[in-house]
Amino acid sequence: MSNNFNKKKFIFIPSFKRIKYLIIILTVILFLFLIYEELYFKKRYKVFLQEFSVKYNYLLETYETNTIRRVKKLEISNIINAHLGKSIFLIPLSNISYEIENLRWVKGVNLSTNLKNKIKVEVLEYEPAGLYFFNDQIFYFSKEGTIIDKYNNKLNEKFIIFSGKNALNHALELLEIINNLNHLDLSSIEEAYYVNERRWNLKFTNQIIVYLSEKNIETSLINYVKIIKELKESEILSIKTIDLRNNKKALINFE
């Protein structure tokens, strides 16, 4: 009998698990190599750009801004000055924008370069709508209902001071009604207190406190204007409160 029948054939086939591990190891090695290459050449690329910019004077030297009233220019300068002398092509505009946007009064910012030596900074500032009294401090708030900054009484500005629980959530509605009525007598409102999270009490410069209706704010304000017009100045000075919660009648309390 032939010996061929007694021989066994062995074919080496790697297991699926071994192949899987091998692929994973090769993938990790390739990934690490690509990261190294990227970082290495990126560093070399930055060095080359900086050297090129120094040689041909493409370095950041200055910046300019649009007209700003409330954002402090010194704060913007401090952010940009940290990048002076760097290649204009390597200035991290997104990082600078992020830092400027985090300054008080900044609503938005747009940066651009002249691709030579200057950055142009366009700042959009928040506009204050009123003042909010909270925790024994007074803050500006914007037309979007955002707390902006502490009140600076040196600026000699006139805004209504709002207070009371959840007052800020309803202040813009009251301001809109007042602005729409656009009456001179309503420009003398000094304070607005939100009572029991339901309605407003207003204090005027003549020290009169007016109780407004919960639902018919506009009608209450119109009635106040009518009452003031019908009274003499001496009578107005002696008024302590005017209750206009009922729009069909007014209760006047004299001192």
Describe the structure.
The protein is of the alpha/beta class. It contains six helices and twelve strands. Helix 4 (167-181) packs across helix 5 (217-230). The model has no long low-confidence stretch (mean pLDDT 87).
Main attributes?
single chain; 255 residues; alpha/beta; Ubiquitin-like (UB roll); Rossmann fold; 3 domains; nine-stranded mixed β-sheet; three-stranded mixed β-sheet; elongated
Helix percentage? 25-40%
Strand order of the largest sheet: 6-5-4-7-8-9-10-11-12
Indicate the overall shape.
Answer: elongated
Using the CA coordinates, give the radius of gyration.
Answer: 35 Å
Tally of strands: 12
What is the number of helical segments per DSSP (H or I, 4+ residues)?
A: 6
**CATH homologous superfamily caption of the largest domain:** Cell division protein FtsQ/DivIB
Instruction: Find the CATH topology of the largest domain.
Output: Rossmann fold
User: What is the top-level CATH class of the largest domain?
Assistant: Alpha Beta
pLDDT below 50 for ≥5 consecutive residues: which ranges? none
Oligomer: single chain
CATH structural architecture of the largest domain = 3-Layer(aba) Sandwich
Tell me the span between the first and last alpha carbons.
Answer: 134 Å
Helix-strand pattern: HEHHEEEEEEHEEEHHEE
Sheet/helix structural class: alpha/beta
- In this structure, how is the largest beta sheet organized? 9 strands, mixed
Mean pLDDT: 87
How much of the sequence lies in strands comes to 25-35%
Count structural domains. 3
